[in-house]
Specification:
Elements: H1 2-29, H2 51-74, H3 77-82, H4 84-110, H5 116-142, H6 146-160, H7 162-176, H8 181-212
Amino acid sequence: MQRSKSIITKTLYFATLLYFSYLMLLITLQYIPLRLDVAFLNIKYDIIDQKFYQLAFFSHVYTSIFVLLIGIVQFSSSIRIQFPKVHRLMGKCYVFLILVISSPSGLIMAFYANGGMISQFSFVMQAFIWFLFTLLALVYARNKQWTLHRNFMIRSLALTLSAITLRLLKWMIANWLEWPPMDIYRLVAWLGWLVNLGIAEIYIWKSKHLRVV
């Protein structure tokens, strides 16, 4: 009975994440082929003509969907146990994309985020922490410190999933509160990743507690 409930819970978890990943994919597809006059870019008229921002933006958008999907699949125990080589290969892809492309490009975008310094500071911090946690996960894997590797991968994935959380919270708050859109954006700029990290820390703590018990 307990095993069945666990399987159902995991199935719902992955199904929910994959559904929201599908919605993120739809957002990404708006920018294929490469265009400067659609969706989010319509309000970035003050910076979108700059080549460095275009490079950062499209690098971030085109790689983030892969980072998101790989990160979700990496936490499949079936793949990790039955196909360890696949798990390691996908893990290397995940780390490479974040450290070399997604986080650096996100950092550049953060300096020009909507909402002024409040939002910009939040996204700058997120980009740094995302890079750091992913790097630590790699270091601990190479040192075969698997518990620490797992914990920092959980934290890294929590920050990866903030792309989903930010949009979900923005939609929810906009429907609950009659706030100016930019005030909502400043709020979710912080909540989008702080909420995820909080959940990740609770999950890590509970996992440690269960192992001790």
